[in-house]
Amino acid sequence: MKHATRTAPQKTASVPEEVKTKDDHAEKGDTAKYVYLFGEVEQVEEKVGRDWQQVRALLGGKGANLADMTRIGVPVPPGFTVTTEACIAYLSTGGKFAEDVWEQELAAVAAIEEATEKKLGNPDNPLLVSCRSGAKFSMPGMMDTILNIGLNGEVAEKWVERGTDPRFVYDSYRRLVQMFGSVVLAVPDEEFEAVITGRRKDAGVSSDAELSAADWMAVTAKFKEIVKTHSGSEFPTDPYQQLKQATEAVFKSWNGKRAIDYRNAAGIPHDLGTAVTIQTMVFGNRGNDCATGVAMSRNASSGEAELEGDFLINAQGEDVVAGIRHTQPLGDLKKRMPQLYDEFQEIAVKLEKHYRNMQDMEFTIEKSKLWLLQTRDGKRTAQAEVRIAVDMVEEGLISKEEAVRRVQPAQVDFFLHPQLEAKARAEAQLMARGLNVSPGAAVGIVAFDADIAERWAKQDGRDVIMVRPETRPDDVHGMLASQGILTSRGGRTSHAALVARQFGKPAVVGVGELDINLDARQMSIGEQLLINEGDWISLDGTAGEVFLGKLPTEVPDVSNPYLLKILSWADEIRTLEVWANADYPNDARRAREYGAQGIGLCRTEHMFFESERLPVVRRMIMAKTPAERKEAIEKLLPLQRKDFEGLFRAMEGHPVIIRLIDPPLHEFLPSYDQLIQELADLKVRLQHFDTLIEIDNALAEIQVKSHYLERVQALREMNPMLGTRGVRLGILIPDLTTMQVRAIFEAACKCAKEGVDAQPEVMIPLTCHANELKVQQTELEKAAREVMQEQGIHIKYKFGTMIEIPRAALTADELAEFAEFFSFGTNDLTQTVFGISRDDAEAGFLVHYIQKKILPENPFASLDSGGVGKLMKMAVKLGRETRPNLEVGICGEHGGDPQSILLCHQLGLNYVSCSPFRVPVARLAAAHAALQEKA
Amino acid sequence: MKHATRTAPQKTASVPEEVKTKDDHAEKGDTAKYVYLFGEVEQVEEKVGRDWQQVRALLGGKGANLADMTRIGVPVPPGFTVTTEACIAYLSTGGKFAEDVWEQELAAVAAIEEATEKKLGNPDNPLLVSCRSGAKFSMPGMMDTILNIGLNGEVAEKWVERGTDPRFVYDSYRRLVQMFGSVVLAVPDEEFEAVITGRRKDAGVSSDAELSAADWMAVTAKFKEIVKTHSGSEFPTDPYQQLKQATEAVFKSWNGKRAIDYRNAAGIPHDLGTAVTIQTMVFGNRGNDCATGVAMSRNASSGEAELEGDFLINAQGEDVVAGIRHTQPLGDLKKRMPQLYDEFQEIAVKLEKHYRNMQDMEFTIEKSKLWLLQTRDGKRTAQAEVRIAVDMVEEGLISKEEAVRRVQPAQVDFFLHPQLEAKARAEAQLMARGLNVSPGAAVGIVAFDADIAERWAKQDGRDVIMVRPETRPDDVHGMLASQGILTSRGGRTSHAALVARQFGKPAVVGVGELDINLDARQMSIGEQLLINEGDWISLDGTAGEVFLGKLPTEVPDVSNPYLLKILSWADEIRTLEVWANADYPNDARRAREYGAQGIGLCRTEHMFFESERLPVVRRMIMAKTPAERKEAIEKLLPLQRKDFEGLFRAMEGHPVIIRLIDPPLHEFLPSYDQLIQELADLKVRLQHFDTLIEIDNALAEIQVKSHYLERVQALREMNPMLGTRGVRLGILIPDLTTMQVRAIFEAACKCAKEGVDAQPEVMIPLTCHANELKVQQTELEKAAREVMQEQGIHIKYKFGTMIEIPRAALTADELAEFAEFFSFGTNDLTQTVFGISRDDAEAGFLVHYIQKKILPENPFASLDSGGVGKLMKMAVKLGRETRPNLEVGICGEHGGDPQSILLCHQLGLNYVSCSPFRVPVARLAAAHAALQEKA
């Protein structure tokens, strides 16, 4: 059967009546325009006032992009878009095409026919088109693609007659019937798949690729039967009918249940409607002068400025993606089709220039003609991101601000930690998931206590992962010696998490399913998996995952010149300073290397846990007389002085905020439960000793431990978080804080005499009332002045306070009478503002709260702007009312969190202080905050 | 030696020259007036614009009062006052009398001489005067009194010659020399006292009263020698010299070190100066027509309107006060000197009318002439205070407002608790002091656990004091059965303190020195005092004191008609409502009796601790499956419904706020430490059992307890105060809160059907984010509506939330989108705003903080207006922005504290809610708040 060539729409059985009226209307030009050819994008822009978002609203994202590519002269298969207005009109009239939508569509088809020199439904020279939905926002649940519209039995037959591979033709035809059936006529797709499966079985083959042309012909026939059975009418062989029904199906899919649900969840308005894009089909599988492929305009791994991609000769797009056939690198195209390769390269440059970003492109070559099917911003690695951003600035494509804005904080973080090799990771056995509290990969053998971890690491030079139910301050030496830390309990701000982040050790904590048997030196997960001490495991602290075995790692380079460039630009942009939390000279040096402009928090008590000091600290706590206590305190002075000296040297010329002792004293003693257990054990063992010496030793140990127990019981608190800590301790034991201040100023004076510019700032923690500062600060400043007088030198210094208790924020005006600086301790402030104990909640109800969206996110990870932030704002305002030049910063965990850094910028803080490993991230985030403010 | 009678000042060696010029000046009348006779008060008032405070500023408190009494015709010994202006002038010129101050003083002396018909320095008819300082504000450290100015050797001699008792005369003379010497000439008083001591020794007597006239003559002579030795000059025998030097000494004492220190401490300005009051001496000890005494214008114990007092014939004022001689009741004066008694009575009435208050008066009768020496508002008991206030309103002396203002909250509180009899208390053995957490007296035998306390009280009908290291919820039955509670640990808001106040049980807690040995059933204090279970002790919960033995008590009457009158007037004045915290119908009934207008807090969980319910509650907590848990919860429903029914009936027509379950679940289980101990004991005992049954039972018990232990460990929290409580529980176990809401509404519907107007208000505790209300309240309101639909009746109800977390206050506008009422839980709010755990701090650093004035007062006793109050203010404002008719109250412990009630009034709260026993106090305090606002 042959159709006459149609140079203009004809009124036939299959061509609707409206065709005629369409022309009339078009001539009259008095109706709205609902259909735009890709080449008519200028008209659209004119209509919506040159607002690209409005263009997208009218044409949908896909239609707008194809039109945009067409405009800049990229070869895109011709097509047109039916606007979202047409959809809205169709839906609001209960399913009728508005005015002459269909007529305009037919006119557009005619225009394509002219452009392609093909005809829809003409078996001798058939035009095939695809039909796709496209809303302003990408939206799952909308109608899928229908390909190959325009095919029918006659067209197929003729096509084969003209020498086209019959297998290709009938595979294409059955696809049309299948897609049309399931999408337009709502035939369950399983029924079609069942036919194919049956056919494979009958043919005795295992893949679709092995089915023959005859098989696909038979399948197509079967598909048509299914369509008829289900829809009650024949599959429309009339291409116009196919097109019209497909258009309507797209319109209707806007109000499909899944689409509505998605819009409700995502907060997308329901009155936007969807556009319909109709585009000429092109085929890369019609011979050896055909090809198809995907390409990136730059190397997606390294960012190098070279085309990169894969292609296949005589193949369909899906063949490339599916990876069934072995693809060729794009370089080979240069050899096979040098002219087309050059053309493609020119197009890539054009697209990059236009979109000012690296492009991810799909192309097809049909009969030696290159077509671009799609382009979008390409996904890339962190390394590629920074390099491309820097290169594009140098190429004049984007501004420095744009480059900085493009790099994400997580991408900077990537450079700071080793990573598990992606491939090995994908194949490894995932043991368990926990909280991703400290990023990076760590691989090592399991050690169940700090001493073993340290011994294996230091003496035997082995890589160790320290595994504990939870960690305590006296585990720190083991943690430092380990590659990474794994715990079964604890939350995002547990001891393990805090220490791990502080020292840049990858860590996964709170792995509830991990059952650790310290006696048996084993851990298990469920019934199956048993791991012995000494076995290899691998941690991904970035993802919070634990793998069995020894996985390979790769280490990105923090001194990557592109990264350094981006960060230097970020420094030019940001107004917020970035300081670091560092307790030791080593950390301070690292912080400086990473760009820290000061130390925002030095926790003096961490020094107390070191092995040679802990006995002295314990002697101080256990002292029976003030004199005994004073003696112990004086022993600590030279040690602390030495620590501070190192810090001042490392931070020369930059401020160093030193926090006076903060934790409750019982933290320096063995735990209550542990002592009870040890005493019970000792008493049992006592009965089995034979020699007097053994018994004597045991009795002495019992006495010591009983003494500890007594003190621990006296110091025990119901709610230690709200107990005798911080300045409360300082006021109860002024000797201790006075010693610390002496150590600070003696160190500073010594440095100053040697020409080192030391800038100590003494920070008083946990203040809740101005009188605390009045009492404590007055006494401490006196000690400071005494030291400077003794040493005969004056040091520039400040005294200030943490703001970590709501009352401190509420009375910040009064505190600022004394304090020369504020530092927000947002960990504790979040705890008290929320009334949440992070130790308990992060492994408890908080998980449920976040899952159920009762809290939008974990307030210990990102600052709660509605509550904590509001209080901070008040404190900044009140504080600066009293003291306009008040220095205000943040030293809580939030100081390294980009979202929190934005808030800190908005609150007008002077600096954020975070762990040294977060400093580069914070520098970038601070720049983002400044950029966001400008925008 | 005799002086000629001086009718006018003469120029003699002893009379200064200025005397002459004085008259000139007086005639010229062109100098300022610095000296005012008592009778010249009108002139003073004119000068300062009729402002009594200014009169006091010029004449000092003492001078002003004497002048005031003189004005209203009360017989006051004549005198005059040198103004504070004279003092300031004197001091500012470096110690020179301004202009004619001294001349005016001489003229005033002349006026007194005329009035008394006596002459200063005239041995035949000598005028003796006293000289006293008097500043605007009473001030220790100012100059003491000098009596008997005008005496010298000659005057004394003649006086004796004219028949005056020589012992009296020379005692008076040595007093002048002594006072003048020590006060004016700064001779150390010890030197004088040493002379008297030596004299007593020589005379072989033990008291001054036994020394003879000759002794005092000798002492006087010796005193004069001492003066000469110390000051370098003779004691001035010239009376004018005495007067002038005394006046100057008063002036100078204004700048004495003690006075300056006191003013600095009390914030009194340093430029006020002191006045000098010179007054004629009168003597009650010059014969049997003389007397002296003190009297109250009304009965200071009962408030009855009758004169009451003591006097002595022929005695000095100090004899009455010292209690050496046996005084006579004032009634006897009526018999002895009826006319003078009547005159005194008239004066008392006159003074009361003038001062509109009960007066405490000193009087002296010299030669049958009555003189009033002093009057001031009289101290009185609580009973007297309320009766006098009411009587004076009825007598038209004061307004109702004034009556209400006069009665202090502590005086109302007095009526609500038994008291230890004052006399017995003074003589009893004080065992120890602790925190006075619940007022009133309790007397009983010591019981060391709740079961024994209950058995002894209920079965044996004995009065019991329950003594524990600290109490737990499962001790409540014993606490209820006891007269009072004593603990060695815990603070002002410990469990013991809260429960005691709730039930009006006197309690002393936190008696640190108390060493309780539960095994030995003994307690001890130090090495000495050992008390066995069953021994009698007495508690004073008002003072926080513990006495050994069984002390008698007295019970003031809360239905005292005067008290009720005062409270009814308070109700007319106040705008703040007073509600009560009550968990049981009995409490609610008492609260109503005491005037509560609603229940502000019913703690549903208290019901869970009752003996028949606790096993069900524990079954719920221990449930292994949701079904098991649901079953237990359903068992609780009818019990809770019954509770609520009782409450609604008791509070008919008034709102009842019911708080959903609040405490962490582990509070319903045995404590961790207890379980560990019990399990250890069981395992030891296991080894000594013989029979299989014993062993089986023990094993079963071990299993149960191990099961408990496991759950307790799982529920254990580092900081339970900030843990899984309140709405967090409600969200985790919605079945539980839904059951509670069903019970509330089933009860309300039942009541309503029987015609009882039930007004439930459901309160969600510990909210920190609006989403918590969104989730929980939505679900609960659904349950409420279901019940009402089932029952076919509609109840007026509200849903609301506690504001006890800073974030709730900070986001009150968001919370008010859901909550129809707010109730400030200021106990927890104070803990979180300060970052202080009350359990730990009240027996810890908080004590130190309050002692050292770092905190002005315990913020758990009185609301911290600077921090907590500021946050409350913000919450009220934000809440009412969203919901203008938002009901706002307070249900924390502060609701019964007068100072906090004032703050609540100022914040615009609708009500305060406190323990039933504090309701009358709160009614008064609320009226005070309203009055203060008006003022």
Task: Describe the 3D structure.
- The structure is a homodimer of 935-residue chains.
- Chain A contains 39 helices and 33 strands.
- The radius of gyration of chain A is 36 Å and the shape is elongated.
- Chain A is α/β, with parallel strands linked by helices and 935 residues long.
- In chain A, helix 2 (41-48) runs antiparallel to helix 3, helix 15 runs antiparallel to helix 16 and helix 38 (898-906) crosses helix 39 (919-934).
- Helices cover 49% and strands 16% of the residues of chain A.
- Mean pLDDT of chain A is 90; it is low at 1-29.
- Chains A and B meet through helix 29, helix 31, helix 32, helix 34 and helix 35 of A and helix 29, helix 31, helix 32, helix 34 and helix 35 of B.
Oligomer: homodimer
How many DSSP helices of chain A?
39
How large a portion of the residues of chain A is in β-strands, by DSSP E? 15-25%
Q: Output the radius of gyration of chain A.
A: 36 Å
The total strand number of chain A stands at 33
On the 0-100 scale, what is the average pLDDT of chain A? 90
- Gap between N and C termini of chain A: 64 Å
Identify the biggest protein-protein contact and residues per side.
A-B, 50 and 50 residues
Low-confidence stretches of chain A: 1-29
Q: Choose one word for the global shape of chain A.
A: elongated
Amount of helix of chain A: 40-55%
Q: Main β-sheet of chain A, in a few words?
A: 8 strands, mixed
Strand order within the widest beta sheet of chain A = 14-24-23-16-17-18-19-15
Properties at a glance:
homodimer; 935 residues; alpha/beta; eight-stranded parallel β-barrel; 39 helices; 33 strands; disordered N terminus
